[in-house]
């Protein structure tokens, strides 16, 4: 699971974490075991989003014995900010972000990596195949998800079955082009990434994955749901205002 400075890891795993002391340890152990048994040279980046519990201390304890880096946000900035922070700091040839509860088992990354090997630039996990759902969300959350899906289709033209699954893999070149333009810092950032990817012409594969709803999710259905709908409007406004046009030096650059 190791990589040298001259030999970047094959895979970077970015974990946004806010008050995840109860779940993070098991997640780090599972990722470590997967990479060791499969012989994957990887690094793990835990992005601490202003946690008030022992999340950062736990992550640093793991960093003492395996390739884990702990990044600190300037306070609680949101999941979107955390993912961007981790992506911009990662060194891997392929960059995965996943939730701290591993709702999609880490072994499912093999499906995403296979999609990249087949020619995709980005592979996004999808919860659209019901037979792969091990534990489902509440009916209210599923209904809200369906409504959000249709808003995303209507306003952004993104015809993916599931834009919100927190399990997405990027080629390094695609991440280098997309994340500097990301502006949404909280829960509505996923469709923004896909919107930018489509505008730039990156090939996106949607891949059904095993997924289990985990209790203790940080998203508040009404408050954060409303913000996500507003974020979709912000994405459309940003596009009209030309805020997703990369500067020439950004188009030519890659993440170092």
Features of this protein?
single chain; 256 residues; alpha/beta; Spore Coat Polysaccharide Biosynthesis Protein SpsA, Chain A; seven-stranded mixed beta sheet; two-stranded parallel sheet; 9 strands; globular; disordered C terminus
Provide a descriptive summary of the structure in words:
- Helix 2 links the parallel strand 2 and strand 3 (68-72).
- It is built from 9 helices and 9 strands.
- It has a single domain, classed as Spore Coat Polysaccharide Biosynthesis Protein SpsA, Chain A (Alpha-Beta Complex).
- By secondary structure, it is an alpha/beta fold.
- Helix 5 packs parallel to helix 8 and helix 7 packs parallel to helix 8.
- Helices cover 41% and strands 17% of the residues.
- It starts with 10 loop residues before the first strand and ends with a helix.
Order of helices and strands: EHEHEHEHEEHEHHEEHH
What does the radius of gyration come to? 17 Å
For the record, give the distance between the C-alpha atoms at the N and C termini, rounded to a whole number.
20 Å
Number of helices: 9
By DSSP, the count of extended strands is 9
CATH architecture: Alpha-Beta Complex
CATH class: Alpha Beta
Mean pLDDT: 88
Describe how the helices and strands are arranged.
Elements: E1 11-17, H1 24-38, E2 42-48, H2 55-63, E3 68-72, H3 79-89, E4 94-98, H4 109-117, E5 122-126, E6 133-135, H5 139-156, E7 167-171, H6 172-178, H7 189-200, E8 204-208, E9 211-212, H8 221-240, H9 248-252
Helix pairs in contact: 5-8, 7-8
Briefly, what is this?
This protein is α/β, with parallel strands linked by helices. Helices cover 41% and strands 17% of the residues.
